[in-house]
Amino acid sequence: xxxxxxxxxxxxxxxxxxxxxxxxxxxxxxxxxxxxxxxxxxxxxxxxxxxxxxxxxxxxxxxxxxxxxxxxxxxxxxxxxxxxxxxxxxxxxxxxxxxxxxxxxxxxxxxxxxxxxxxxxxxxxxxxxxxxxxxxxxxxxxxxxxxxxxxxxxxxxxxxxxxxxxxxxxxxxxxxxxxxxxxxxxxxxxxxxxxxxxxxxxxxxxxxxxxx
Amino acid sequence: xxxxxxxxxxxxxxxxxxxxxxxxxxxxxxxxxxxxxxxxxxxxxxxxxxxxxxxxxxxxxxxxxxxxxxxxxxxxxxxxxxxxxxxxxxxxxxxxxxxxxxxxxxxxxxxxxxxxxxxxxxxxxxxxxxxxxxxxxxxxxxxxxxxxxxxxxxxxxxxxxxxxxxxxxxxxxxxxxxxxxxxxxxxxxxxxxxxxxxxxxxxxxxxxxxxx
Amino acid sequence: xxxxxxxxxxxxxxxxxxxxxxxxxxxxxxxxxxxxxxxxxxxxxxxxxxxxxxxxxxxxxxxxxxxxxxxxxxxxxxxxxxxxxxxxxxxxxxxxxxxxxxxxxxxxxxxxxxxxxxxxxxxxxxxxxxxxxxxxxxxxxxxxxxxxxxxxxxxxxxxxxxxxxxxxxxxxxxxxxxxxxxxxxxxxxxxxxxxxxxxxxxxxxxxxxxxx
Amino acid sequence: xxxxxxxxxxxxxxxxxxxxxxxxxxxxxxxxxxxxxxxxxxxxxxxxxxxxxxxxxxxxxxxxxxxxxxxxxxxxxxxxxxxxxxxxxxxxxxxxxxxxxxxxxxxxxxxxxxxxxxxxxxxxxxxxxxxxxxxxxxxxxxxxxxxxxxxxxxxxxxxxxxxxxxxxxxxxxxxxxxxxxxxxxxxxxxxxxxxxxxxxxxxxxxxxxxxx
DNA sequence: GATGAATGAGAATTCATTCAT
DNA sequence: GATGAATGAATTCTCATTCAT
Lengths: 212, 212, 212, 212
Hints:
The first copy, chain A, is an all-alpha fold. Chain A has helices spanning 25-40, 47-54, 68-93, 97-114, 116-124, 131-158, 167-180, 195-210.
C-alpha cells in the first residue's frame, strides 16, 4: 500500500545523533514553490506539483501554510523584506541623491539577479492576492516607487538629475530598468555576463539617461 | 448592448445582409478574451468568463477557436503581426541606424500604449503555449530582439551609438525600456500624460543612454 | 488532438422521436439529495453520493446547483413554500381561532407525514446555511411560529384556548407536537398506522391540552 | 446535576498531588466536544476544533479517546446513564402509574433543560454511530420508550390515562413533548422562563392531554 | 451558429488518524 | 502525556472540452 513512505527505514543510526530531517521542509517548501511559480506563474502552479518536488503528500503541505494564496504572500513578503533591507543599507551611506539613486539601482539589481525567481514572482504575481493581502502587497510596491521618486526629485532639486523630463517619467523609467534586469541573463549560449557586468551596465545606462 | 443576448437575432433577414454580426461576434470574442487575460493572466482566465462577457454559452465559443491555447495564440499572433508591420514601416523610411532605432522605439511605444492589454499578454503569457505554437511565438520575440540588436550594432559601427557597453546589454536595456512603457500610464490621479508625452520621454531617455 | 470537430457527422438519427432523457435530472437530483440528506444529515452527505444515485459524474451536478449549500437551500425553500401554501388554504376557510389552529395542525401534520424526509431536513439542517440564506431560512421558521402564536393568542382572547399557561409555552408545545409527528410512524413492526390515524391523534391530544 | 461520572473508576489515585489536572483535561475534552457537536452536529465538528478549544494539539486528543466516534459514544453514554438514574429515582418513589409518568416527565424535562446540549446530541447524532455502538445506543432509546410506554399502559389499565387513543400514539406524543422541551428556552428577548416555569408547563399540558 | 447537459480530469482544501520523539 | 509532522483518503468545486439537438 502507500508509496513506500517508510521514513523509519533508517535502521543504520542506533541512537539518533541527528534529529533533523523533519523541520527544514519549511525551507524546502518555499524553495520549490518559488521555482515552480516563477516558471509557470501562480495560477498554473499546483499544490500537487510543489508537494511532489518537496517529497510529501499534498495534504501535508498545509502544515506549512494555510492556503496557496498565503504561500504566495509569504514569498512576496520575504522578497519585500529583503529589498527593504537593501534600501536601509543605502540610506545609511548618506550619499547625495543621485549617488544614492545609483547605489540603490546597483544593489537592487544585484539582488534581482541573485534572486531572479523571487523577483519575477514579485513583479508578476501580486495580482493573484486578494483582500488585505493584496492591499498590503500593493503598498509595498508603492513604497518602492515612492522612494525612488523622492531620490529623483531630490536629485532634480540638487541639479544633478535632469529636469527637462517629468520626475514621474524618470521614476517609471528607472523602475522599469531595474525590473527588467532580471531578464538580461536569460538567453544562454554565447559567453555569460557576470552579475557585475550586468549591474555596471544598468547603472551606467540609467545614470547617463538621468543625469542633467 | 449589454446583456440581452441579441434579441434581434431570429427570423427577420432571410439572405444575409448581416454577415457583420458574425464578424462582430468573432471580434467580440477576441476583445473580451484580451481584456480578461490581460487582467488575470491566461491560466486564471476561464472560458466561462469569456463566454459570459461575450454573451454566449461556453460551448458556443468553440465555434470561434478550437482550444483555449489556440485563442491565446491568435491574440499573440495578431500582436506580432501589428508589431511587425511597424517594423516594416520604419524600414521604408531608410533612416540611418540610430535614427531608425529611435523611430522604432517611438512607434513601438505608441503601439504598446494604445494596445496595453495585448502588449501585456504578449510579454507575459507566451509561456503557456506548447509545442509548435510555443516555438513559433518564441521565434517572434527573438526576431524582435534580433532586429533591435542589428540596428544597435550598425549604430555602433557608424559611431552614433556608444561602444563602451556590450551591444547585447544595450539591446536588452532598450527592449526593457520599450516593454515597460506599458506600465507607465498606470497610476491615475494627478494629471494624465498623453501618449506623446510618454513616447517623447522614452525616446529621449533611451536616446541619451545609448548615444555615444 | 486539435482541429476535427466534424460537425457534419450527424447522418444517423433522421427525425428523433424521444427528446427526453436529458432534462428531468433536475427532479432526480432533488429527490436523491433529499433522501440522502434526510438519512445522513447535510454534513455527512457527499456530492459524490448524490451523483452516484442520480447516475451522473459529480461535476455534472453543478449544472443543477451552484454549491452544496444552495442545494440545501432549495430543498428547504421548496418545503417552506409548500407549508406556506397550507397556511394560506387554512386562512381561506375563515375558521374561528381554535378551529383554525386545529385545522392548521391537521394539515401540517399530513404534510409532514407525507414529506417526512423534507420535513426532517427542514427542522434539522437549517443550521448549515450561512449568511443571507441562513437569515432567510430562519425567518421562515419564525414566521411559522408567529402564525401559530397569533392563532393561539386569538383563541385565548376568544376564551376557547386556556389562559392559565403563557401563550409562548402553548406555542412551543404545539410546534413541538407538529414537528415530532414526523417520527411517529418510524418504528416498523406491529400494525402500521395510517396518516389519518396519526393526524387524528395529534389533533385530539393537542386540542385537549390547549382547550380552556 | 453531575451525578455519576464514575469518578471512582480508576484504581484509587495513589499519590500525586495534581492528578486533577489530568481529570480536568478529560472533562474539558468532553465539555468542549459537547458544546461544538451540539452547535454544529457531529459530522461538521472537527477534531481540530475540539483541540483548539481544549488548548491541545489535535494529535494529543487521542490520549482521551480512540476515535471521534468513540468520543460521540461516550457523550451519548453519559447522557444515557444520567437519564437512567432519573428513571431509577422515579421508580423508588413507587407512585401510581399516571403520577409516575408525570414525575418522569418533570424530572426528564429538568434534566433536558439543564443539559440542553447533551440532550440535543442524544436525540440527533446517534445515527452517526456504527456497528455495536449504534446497536447499543439505539437500544437505550428503545428502553426509554418502552418504559414510558409501560407506564402509559398501566395508567390506561388503572383508568387514569385515556384509552380512546392507542398507547403507542400516546407514548410517542409524550416522548415528543419531552424531547422538544430542549427548544423551548431558545428565543431570547422578552422575559426568560425559569426551568420550573417550563417544566410546570409541559407537565400540565401533557397531563391534560393524556388524562382520561 | 448556438444550446446546454455531460464528461473526465484535476484543482485546493480538510480531516481523522498515526507515530517517532 | 504532549507534540507536530505526515499520511491517505475524501470532499467540494472548477474547467476545458464534446456533442446531440
